[in-house]
Structures are given as C-alpha cells and as structure tokens.
Amino acid sequence: MRWLIKSLLGIPLLLVIMACGHGTAESSQELPVKGMVNMVDVGAGSCIPCKMMAPILEELKTEYDGKAVIAYIDVRYDRAAVDKYQIRGIPTQIFFDAQGKEVGRHLGFMDKESIKAALSKLGVK
Question: Staple 91 to which of 10, 17, 43, 108, CB 3.0 to 4.6 Å?
C-alpha cells in the first residue's frame, strides 16, 4: 500500500516497479529466443495481476513446449529488462515472431485464452 501512495505522490512508476515482487525468472539477456515465437511476461512476484498470471504461464509453458517460448521476467531481479523492453507498467506481455521482432504488446492481466489467441495469430498451433 505504501508504494501505491508514493506512486500517487509523483514517485516515478519505474521505482514502483523495481520495489515490488520476487521470484524466479528467465534473464532478459537470453530473450527473445530466435527461431521460435516468444511470449515474454514482465512482472514482479508481489504484483497481484502477476501472481494471477503465474499458474497460467506455467500451464502454457507445458502446452507450448517445443512450439513457442513462454518466459517470465521479474523486474526486481532483472532491472535491465525495464529499459530493454521499455516497460511502463506491470504485468506487460510482449510477443515476438520467430525472427525476434516484437509484434505485439499487452499491459495488465492477460487471460489464458487471449494469450493462446495471440500465439495462434503468430502461427503457433
């Protein structure tokens, strides 16, 4: 709650992002993986929408194993990701084509069916 009050008082969103969350994640330096479609979710462990998406991402990792890369980056542990992906809020889902080009972005909670639809549009079956 304290971070919310500070954000409302003009503390930049970047500081709010960096102050919240914890957990394991991939390194932004390894992403996107070329040769495969990628969905990178950038969030933080204490962010409520991020926590809601965690089980969805785990399911998708299993469903799309070998077909697409489903990755999570925790900005608390990989602060370079904020600049690399130009993150303005969390969670942010970024979609990359097989050549590694960003082709779509969504800010906020994204349900499983919406993620699957986005991956399908990129040719992932």
Answer: 43
